[in-house]
UniProtKB/TrEMBL annotation:
GO terms for molecular function: uridine phosphorylase activity. One of its GO terms (cellular component) is cytosol. This is Nucleoside phosphorylase domain-containing protein. It comes from Chlamydomonas eustigma. Pfam families: PNP_UDP_1 (PF01048).
Amino acid sequence: MTVPLHLKGYDIQCNGQKYVPSSENFRKHSSSRATSNSVWSSSSVIYSRSSKPSFSNANFPTTPEGRTYHLGTKGGEVANRILSVGATQRAELLSKLLDPPPNGGQLFRYLSSRGFLTVTGEYQGTPISIVSTQMGMPNMDFVVRECRAVVEGPMAVVRLGTCGALQPPASLGQLIIAHSSINIRRNPDAWSDLSTASMLPAYMFTLPVQADPHIVRLLAEEASSTMGASNVISGLNATADSFYSSQGRVGGNFDDRNEGLIEEMCEKYPDMVSLEMETFHLLDMARCSGGRVRAAGMCLALADRKSNEMLEYARLEQLEVEAGLAALRALIKTDLD
Ligand code: R1P
Ligand code: URA
């Protein structure tokens, strides 16, 4: 049965049970005391530039109370199931799907001076954090390392982003789950003055890294239920170090030598379907975590790189909520033992 969901103006069609949005579900409590088993403190915190924290340990800087340098969170404020999204606006939107802690108070919110927003609450009784990762692999590096530093025990991270649809079967508006990812980077040495530079490739491709197959399976099941199976595909992702040059976007202002790059990618990797900027690094970090981080990534196809079309923004927001629900449901089912 399809049940309409209402979330602040969004009319979401979702197969299965009736969902009560957390914004209508907030319990009003006078106490803001956190119980010993809750993973976050129940007060809202905004980290402002006017407060001047002092950091020690140049190797991994933290404040005396244990706040990390860029995300600004400390132990007890981040859940071990994390939904990483690019835009802060997407984090705000999806935080409406979370419930506050059962002991009262509000969702935990922390906006760091570097612009990373962490929101912690519960989804169907399980603690979850939503973190806005912003853009690019260095920012994903901050998120994974600094969350890992303040979370106890095993951790699961799902990325929900947007991407370009590279080639069929990918198309505009689909949710594309990465079963694996490669990294494509512009090779600056190819532009050097050395006589050998012309022999160098302008773009370099890494070997693929695999997503966690258990989380991939859960994401596919949950997304098929919230979005319809025909709107969900999986395939090889490419994470680029630029939205422009290394994703084959051409323009006259720079010597990018990328005119044939899209064709090269399609020919070399017939199952490559999505192009974006973070997934590879998330999967690579998980691979290097000694089993302490399980990760997967999926993206909504916002740009069709063959037809040159872009998805309408209003449609994107509705898809973000449907895909966000799928991510939350997959995260709470992820086995972390
Ligand atoms: C580029 O516009 C950004 O959008 C994609 C890319 O990976 C990059 O971060 O993802 P998000 O929508 O999650 O930011
Ligand atoms: N994000 C990207 O990185 N590339 C696209 O084409 C669309 C969104």
